[in-house]
Write a structure and sequence with these properties.
The chain is of the alpha/beta class. About 35% of the residues lie in helices and about 15% in strands. A hairpin with a 4-residue loop joins strand 4 and strand 5.
Amino acid sequence: MRFSLRNICLSVSIFYFSFSIFSQTTPTRPRLVIGIMIDGLQQKHIDLLWNYFDQGGFKKIIGQGANCRNVSYNIVSAGNASDIATVMTGTTPYYNGIVGNKYYSRSEDVVKSIIQDDSQIGIGTSETYSAHNLLASTIVDELMLANPNKSKSYAVAINPEEAIMMGGHTSNSVAWIDDVNLKWVTTGYYTNGLSHWADDMNVNGVFKNFTARTWGPLYNINTYSTKPNREDKKWGFMYDPTAKKSKNSAETIIKNTPSANGLVAELGLKLITEEHLGTDISPDMLLLQFTVRTPFERTQAMQSAEKEDIYLRLDKDIENLLQKIDVKIGLDKTLVFMFGNQTDVHSPTELGANKIPAGYFNADRSIALLSSYLMAIYGQQKWISGYYGKNIFLNRDKIASKRINLSDFQKTVADFMLEFEGIQSAFTSSQILNMGGDSNSEIARIRNSTNKNCIGDVIISLLPGWIEVDNNNNPVGESNAIVSYTPVYFYGWQIKPQSIVTSYKTTDIAPTLSRLLNIPMPNACIGKPIDELTK
């Protein structure tokens, strides 16, 4: 068959026209997405230290990226697991199931880790964890499902809750720090187990080199605006990351030192380089958790030289990370998003010292008095089966056997709890699960934070300035603000420098990433893309 010159030209024209149309309908995407979660991050801290940061770290992300100034959590603070799950799924615990770092299991009558999974194996640890209680897909899951066997995803964190919530169900591997045995560990839940590069750091001594670095001031102690929390006459302050948290504790303080941030950054860079992340057209994701919490701190405010120093050192870690990514992949091909968790600006101790009503709520005394009260009314029985995280669980079998109306019993409990200092309100589970009306009300926020699998019979809330603590004085949620804001920043690939003042929720982060990556939104997503970034 012979082709005329006209036919050849026509064929070439059709080819280029088709290619042009294809190019226009196939959007470009970032090659690599870096998610940075910073435990304890506050905008106020950033503002106070702005002039002390280098140009290539926080200043680059915030100054040359999009600063979303009015992003709030629409859930009650109950730990980093629920905060991160809300960001990654684009929905609340009501749908994603992650009501906090821990929950009370009614069937087992025990408080358990939300990531506890006895069907799994630990790798390098006896702890058995997974994402089985995460009931919705995450932005990572949607990326991996959209590009099977092409996209890669890794999560590196200081704690297991953060690692697993960032990694979702489908990451290749996640890793977190074992603060007793001082090494990277993980769970067999993920395809690749412990990544070769994390294991390599354990074996070749790199991990131990980081733990051997004593932590003193980065600069002359006299240049810091506040005094050390624990002063050292020679150095200003000095910490050994391998020191024990307390006399009888096996855990070390490493997770609250710059060594932890350095380890996360080091493994993150190893994964980028050795796993060739961001080197082809299928986007990859790397999720990193850092911290600005310091050992033995009693307030989230910028009131110690250690707090300033850990920020300044983290700034350098982020600067080094961005520099290496720019050389390896190009920051114009990399999308960075950074966010914090829920933390109060001031602790109850600090508020109280300034004559502002505040306090710490420990439920033990309240539950003991409630138990005595119920016995006086209904008889000498164990009417309360358990309590955790502002949820009171009643002995429903006993109530049913005595033919007592459950709704009336719950209302009796709720009315009694209102008498205790620090308690703002008390709702029955039916009030929470069947609420209607204003989606910004207190009861709506509580509903967002519960799940039918974990909800108690009566749920309490605390007054502003109050924080719940367990018997070890560990906070059960670290913010009781009516509206809890968090810093959120986007930088890199096609992100224009801007300050976004429109109000958004943390549930809007995942759909924004979905739109930028041109992948489906997580399957329980209730958020909306941030218009200023996606138009």
